[in-house]
Design a protein that fits this description.
Strand order of the largest sheet: 1-3-2
Strand content: 5-15%
Shape: flat
Oligomer: single chain
Order of helices and strands: EHHHEEHEEH
Helix content: 40-55%
Largest sheet: 3 strands, antiparallel
Distance between the termini: 44 Å
Number of strands: 5
Length: 166
């Protein structure tokens, strides 16, 4: 069973503050792409819990055992907010980069202008979304290998390892 991510678009609009239906800042197609990229980005965080097929519809990975409920719904309710938050980060970081050149401050003898505060507000917003996301799910860690403690050959039951269980 697959599901289109289009049903998450209103939640994504609410999350990024794009709620004026008379003049949306983002087209639905771009929001859908952000949701698809979010599912792909979260693959490493979730051990590929959800995958996208060739038509970019989401489905559950049958090789994982993390699902406590059977389908439907394909995407669990508690996972929807995580996908929306990741898509929000993708969108807002992109718009933050594209508007970096318009964040300026200048003044002359009579007039001064500064919109640096708007840049700070946007940075704070991205940080708040990141903090909210990391409070719901733990980011993947970079490990080369797991730790595995064993006794050294010839030193089994030495005075330093007598109380160690293996």
């Amino acid at each position: 069973m697959t599901v289109s991510l289009e049903y998450l678009i209103p939640f994504l609009r609410l999350s990024i503050g794009d709620i004026d239906s008379t003049q949306y800042r983002y087209m639905d197609e771009w929001l859908l792409i952000a949701l698809q990229v979010a599912v792909k980005s979260l693959g490493r965080w979730w051990n590929n819990k959800y995958l996208l097929d060739s038509s970019n519809e989401a489905y559950r990975n049958t090789n994982t055992t993390v699902f406590e409920e059977s389908e439907p719904p394909v995407i669990l309710a508690q996972d929807e907010i995580i996908i929306v938050l990741m898509a929000s980060l993708i969108l807002l970081e992109g718009s933050l980069e594209s508007s970096a050149w318009s964040t300026v401050s200048w003044k002359d003898a009579e007039v001064s202008f500064s919109n640096l505060e708007s840049g700070r507000i946007r940075n704070d917003r991205v940080k708040r979304i990141w903090d909210q996301l990391t409070s719901l799910i733990t980011p993947p860690t970079k490990k080369l290998a797991g730790v595995n403690k064993r006794s050294l050959p010839g030193y089994l039951k030495n005075k330093y390892e007598r109380d160690t269980e293996y």
